[in-house]
Amino acid sequence: MEKLIQRTHLAQTLLCVGLDPIGDDAQVARRLAEVIDQTAEYAAAFKPNLAFFLSRENGVQLLRETVRRIPGDIPVILDGKFGDIANTADHYARFAYDIVGADGVTVNPYMGDDAIVPFARPGKIVFVLAKTSNKPAHSLQDVALTRGGYLSDCAAQVGRKLDEQHGGIGLVVGATDAEAVGRLRSLSPDQWFLVPGVGAQGGDLAATLRAGLRADGSGLLINTSRVLWQAAEAGAVARQLVEQINQLRPVLA
Ligand SMILES: O=C(O)c1cc(=O)[nH]c(=O)n1[C@@H]1O[C@H](COP(=O)(O)O)[C@@H](O)[C@H]1O
Predict the structure, then answer these.
(1) What is the ipTM of this complex?
(2) Number of folded domains that form the chain
(3) Which residues line ligand 1 (CB under 6 A)?
(4) pTM for this predicted structure
């Protein structure tokens, strides 16, 4: 978590570079290196998505090489959307942190606290899914509770409680629903939000920033993946995104 805060301050960026590699094996290794090298200057974090690595032979090896290529001062969030009982989650945590070398993970909270706690190691960042960016998420996450609020609010409350107990817990909140971003920000005024959905999924960047930035102009990690992977000049696209984001927020002290 400290690494993320330091990085966002020093590089003046809230951009998370998503790494969802597609293509044949030889191409992919080369393209991963290119995207990392071209965007690193602008990256607050990198987020490799585990599925895109596991779907290829030697995927874990490629993932480890990818993480090794990322400069050491930029946090790596392994997007595995893990979520299982504590005994099993502990093994996922060992994989993410000890084998892959990630600084953080994404976790699905559906099974409750014990699916999350094994990832909450000192210095690590755990992003708990609260309101995801995919449209059909509403069938579960927007279910209204008899006590008021929505199921996604429960995920946020669990995340907040665990953050108070362990530290290092943030939320995943998609950019495709700015209203939810605002609601969850009011429930979790201080936590970091990982925000996917900008770019290929059509999320509204300006509305998301307005709704989700903390009072200090920070607290959001804006992820985009396909747009950068497909860009002729990933570095230029990353720079533009950072400029756009920074124009819409107070500059960090
Ligand atoms: O946890 C995530 O990162 C995630 C959560 C969510 O609500 N929506 C979402 O798209 N993601 C991930 O964020 C990335 C989005 O990719 P692009 O749509 O190409 O920018 C993918 O790796 C998704 O798996």
Answers:
(1) 0.99
(2) 1
(3) 18, 20, 49, 79, 81, 106, 132-134, 172, 174, 196-197, 199-201, 223-226
(4) 0.97
